[in-house]
Specification:
Layout: H1 3-14, H2 20-30, H3 36-43, H4 47-68, H5 70-87, H6 91-100
Helix pairs in contact: 1-2, 1-4, 2-4, 3-4, 5-6
């Protein structure tokens, strides 16, 4: 999975566990596609400061996922549902399974 997509997913799931500053900066970088310089200007800090906040926030999000594993569980559920869909012939059941996705 692409790192940007993964971090965005982690931010969506665990973002409330970050500080407001961490959340805002990581959101600006990964979801709004702003550069370090643009974020630094907007947040009134240095580019190095932005980079440090990004690294710390990414590390925290990854550590949280490693401990809780919610995204990993969800990915496994999706994989299993897709495998079931391939084996089921009943269209109603297939539609119900697709709704779960």
């Amino acid at each position: 999975m692409d790192k940007n997509v993964y971090i965005s997913m982690l931010l969506e799931k665990y973002g409330k566990l970050l500080t407001t500053k961490q959340f805002n900066i990581i959101d600006l970088y990964y979801n709004q596609n702003l550069s370090l310089g643009e974020i630094a200007e907007e947040q009134n800090i240095t580019r190095q400061g932005v980079r440090k906040v990004l690294v710390d926030a990414e590390k925290k999000l990854i550590e949280i996922e490693e401990k809780l594993g919610i995204l990993a569980e969800k990915a496994e559920e999706i994989k299993l549902i897709n495998e079931i869909i391939k084996q089921v012939e009943d269209e109603k059941v297939i539609n119900l399974l697709k709704k779960l996705l």
